[in-house]
Specification:
The structure is a homodimer. The first copy, chain A, is α+β, with helices and mostly antiparallel strands and about 210 residues long. Chain A is about 35% helix and about 30% strand. Chain A contains six helices and 14 strands. Chain A has a five-stranded antiparallel sheet. The first copy, chain A, has a four-stranded antiparallel sheet with strand order 3-10-5-6. In chain A, helix 3 crosses helix 5, helix 3 crosses helix 6 and helix 4 packs across helix 5. Chains A and B meet through strand 6, strand 8 and helix 2 of A and strand 6, strand 8 and helix 2 of B. The structure holds a DNA duplex (30 and 30 nucleotides).
Chain lengths: ~210, ~210
DNA sequence: CGACCTATTGAAAGCTATCAACTGGGGTGG
DNA sequence: CCACCCCAGTTGATAGCTTTCAATAGGTCG
């Protein structure tokens, strides 16, 4: 289940100053668990390409997808030297890993991570609003708008790389409720579903109103 | 409503190198809104002392308290140069503010903020799990444990500086549900309430089981 | 002591979860 | 190449939890 396709070590000898020496790039297939919640947190990671989700579990098995990551986003954060979340690829992905000690040595890296932490923290704030205060329909509308921002390539058809269960775990719902919400959005003409995982937003205005602007 | 008690500007001339010049300390009373969501984001702030809550609003007025901050925590984050959240003091507080440009000039500041961003992001991940997957009773238990970690001063009696409404907005519930949860915890003997805002945790083991470890 | 605000408690409604059956598409194997 | 199987998704019915609406209690401050 845990197959790493390729691992390339960075070329420290060729690099000038200010570039961290101990980093490496990984090519990972889709649906691979890169990190396990609770494991000792040795390295910090960045998504270079592809999509990654971070998940947390309760002792009884309830799961929450706490964050969806794309290129530039950082993960592998630690609480008491243990990874706070598991990380699983949603698509084939390229990931860079850094030793945690590199943060002190490499100001450029630290600065880049700082910027991304700020952005990710803002996204988490929005997500708290979604999880705490929005209805099921609003959550799904918000989710789709978030995946397909204003100016989007591909003629407006979005390929979902998540199952209904994964979307549900992200939005704090059940898969049935997510499915019903998709059907309701379709029924109202706000979206069209080519297939279960191919969505087109038909009425962005109404979607934004549902999602509480955005 | 928006009363700033005192503002002391840092003493840049006395400082040696590596200390940001354009920072200032604010003394703020309780229940003061320090930042408004949507305002132009000029400065980044740190809590020195006291407690601050960050809130977000939906267009129809639904509110979510997205984060609770204590000493060392950072706020004033921006999305498109506008503050992503409002910030309101829960207690009298001391706050340091920095110009955003100081982040590039002052590596010590950047490094400190980086560490705190990481911690706050981890807390947000936990909070997503709470908001997405926990029942009302579990949320309140989690909340109380979070406010009163293992080794705590004061003989185990905690003073809540939040109203039921604020707790509800933090936990994604209504104030009535929060009140019922408190009553249920009391009924089960897990907590004792001296007054509505004075809590003693009687059975930490059961609380932790409810909150999903922690 | 009374006014006012916060908190508590009760009853009913509403939304989502749960349980269950059915459908459809993709892949495998005959 | 086609049939079958299997898994993801959809849809329906019911239960359960939280919200909503409403009335009461408690505490603080003037």
């Amino acid at each position: 289940m845990r197959q790493i396709i390729e691992e390339r070590t960075g070329s420290p000898t060729r690099q000038p100053a200010f570039v961290e020496p101990h980093c490496s790039n990984l090519r990972v297939a889709a649906h691979v668990t890169v990190l396990h919640e609770g494991d000792p947190a040795r390295r910090i990671m960045e998504v270079v390409e592809g999509a990654v989700m971070l998940t947390k579990l309760l002792p009884d098995g309830r799961r929450q997808v706490v964050e969806l990551l794309g290129p530039g986003d950082v993960f592998g954060l630690a609480h008491d030297d243990a990874y706070a979340c598991s990380a699983e690829t949603l698509t084939p992905a390229t990931i860079t890993t850094h030793e945690r000690s590199a943060l002190e040595r490499d100001p450029m890296l630290a600065s880049r991570l700082l910027r991304h932490f700020e952005a990710q923290l803002c996204v988490m704030h929005s997500h708290a609003l979604v999880l705490g205060r929005m209805s099921a329909l609003e959550r799904v509308a918000f989710f789709l708008l978030r995946l397909m921002p204003e100016g989007m390539v591909g003629g407006g058809t979005l390929h979902l790389s998540m199952t209904r269960q994964e979307i549900a775990d992200f939005l704090g719902l059940t898969l049935e409720t997510v499915s019903r919400a998709f059907s309701e959005l379709k029924r109202r003409g706000l979206v069209a579903l080519q297939r279960a995982d191919e969505v087109r937003i038909q009425d962005r205005g109404s979607m934004r109103r549902l999602a509480g602007a955005l």
